[in-house]
Amino acid sequence: MIDWIRQLSQLVSLRELRNALLGFIVVIGGLGLAMFTLYAHRTGNIRLAGIAAAASLVFVLLIIIFVIPPLARSASAEASQMNLPFEFTTGGAISIGLLVIVAFAAWNTGNNLLFLVLSFFSSALFVGFLSGNICLRKLDVKMRFPEAIFAGEETPILVGLNNRKRLFPTISVTTEVRGRIREHSKFLHEYKKMLSDKWAKRISRPPIIKHTLDYFVYVSRKSSTENKVKHIFGQRGRFVIRDFELSTRFPFGFFRHRRRLPTQKAEIIVFPKLGQIEHELSEMPLFTGKLISSKKGSGQDLFALRDYQPTDDFRHIDWKATARSNHLTIREFTAEDEKRVTVVLDPNVERTDVERSTPLRQKIKAEQSGEKLSYSEMRFENGVSIAASILSIFANQNADTRLVIGHSIESYGSGVDHLNQAFEKLALVEAVFEEDKPGQDPYEIFPELTTDEGFVNHIFLVTAKHEKEIPSEIRRRVNLVRY
Description:
- Helix content is about 40%, strand content about 30%.
- By secondary structure, it is α/β, with parallel strands linked by helices.
- A hairpin with a 6-residue loop joins strand 8 (about 235-250) and strand 9.
- Helix 4 packs antiparallel against helix 5.
- It is elongated, with a radius of gyration of 35 Å.
């Protein structure tokens, strides 16, 4: 029980509990004073009723200052996730306030000029609301994107808007695509420590992410238009498209009308960001010039000199060496390296002390608000980017490559399709934080990785561990790249 309470305290702080308790007391006190004022008024105690009424006004002021603002912020966050047809802009809220003031002044004074101003305000709000509502009717959106999308790079996207209205054009419309990058929150395992699996999955909702596609100034009636825009996806991963959102503030900006259009189930896979790591690889022996093999073959690099045998080709005789040794000498050449490259990504990452001590409520708030990744998460993202860059470099050299994550060993391959499959796996891989769940030992698979007979296999180990933590026999076999 004590452990459960300690874990639950990660979701709610003492300050939040204190504010909730004070807000409850203020509301109950205000209602109590209001009932007491009513009772004193009915019993004829005018003085006591006046004192109670003044005290109740103080409680109302406290409610306005301390209770309503946090409720309004929570309501605003929830309303942004709901499919509301419109919302007031700042200008619209000011206009409504002025409308109420003018209406009260006109009713109180009976001035015809104020009634004229009131009618002008009312008609402007009505026309603005009706025009914006008509503007978003009978619209269709289409989006086409390329097969390969990389994080941090400009991606050309074709966005089309079709206006099916017979009489009215569409003016000043912003198109957005909405979706999620995962099915559940990335802190689902921490929810499960406190709640059952059913309730943990129900409340661990990932945030809905919006990507603004384009702004259409004007689309005439019964016509369509298509624009080519460039968009930058800041983070790798799977983006599951949920729907399109159209919005407009036409014509006066008093309202922001919204309309969401359902779309067919689709997803965008954003590949990891490719970094510039040629300089680091150039310091490794295998990347200096041409790759050299330790076997004999039909290459162009000299392997050894030996005496002539009757079955040797005369074209391989080294005449200078023959003149020096006074007998026929044959040149042997190295086999060309097949450039088989294995990239092993170790997903095990250790959180920092600051991240371990951060309460769960702050982590959830950072996820919902879309704040920057933590230090360990950014570190892992850098490792994924390094692994993708190594694969890209050797694939462009027509090398056979393979990606190993955990204990899953794939076959070698080459070409664009094989490379994109590896990029997709890197786009979806997630870090394994050792304090949350023990990760698999990545070194258990190395005996299988080094059994390629007849080939020179270059293994890159991309890991967050220090060199001293890696077994010496593994360290001698691999090219270590730390992130």
